[in-house]
Amino acid sequence: GAGVSQSPSNKVTEKGKDVELRCDPISGHTALYWYRQSLGQGLEFLIYFQGNSAPDKSGLPSDRFSAERTGGSVSTLTIQRTQQEDSAVYLCASSLGIRTEAFFGQGTRLTVV
Amino acid sequence: SQQGEEDPQALSIQEGENATMNCSYKTSINNLQWYRQNSGRGLVHLILIRSNEREKHSGRLRVTLDTSKKSSSLLITASRAADTASYFCAILSGGSYIPTFGRGTSLIVHP
Question: Domain total for chain B?
Fold first, then answer.
């Protein structure tokens, strides 16, 4: 596709439910990042995938968060047993290689009620 | 990994004026990147400057990097109302592959 695509754009879920957020990176981009951004805050790194290497999960805030990237392309971020503090915009980005510019999707706004 | 810190947190100017935002960091970097974010959604890459570069231009944007002071600045000349957005710097530390972002500068350009 022309850019990074994220779905859904908005998600409202009840506390305690599981959610899955999807990211379709730009074709051919080997690096994929997930960040989250709370209202008025900067971007908090969550997880990084690079090619076939083991992902860097050092930013995941708890074991309720997990992510996978299938076939080196689409990625899914899963949040189990959602809490109100999980409410944020979840941003996915991809880049052609390491240490190059990142292209961001429009994000998924998650609201936990 | 470290993050950059942008300054000021907020900036309000009139159309036609120049806007300058600064980013400071603490350790060695591979490169530093500037991004723009409209309406709290996706970020758009503006400029990447490598540690061995001192200045880069793109249209009305000028980025400088001073590695001795561990700081960078983004200058927007002849600002327009459409430049209203949040601007973030992202640091690629020497040993990292992950851009880390600061809290951003919120720029408002009044028509």
Answer: 1
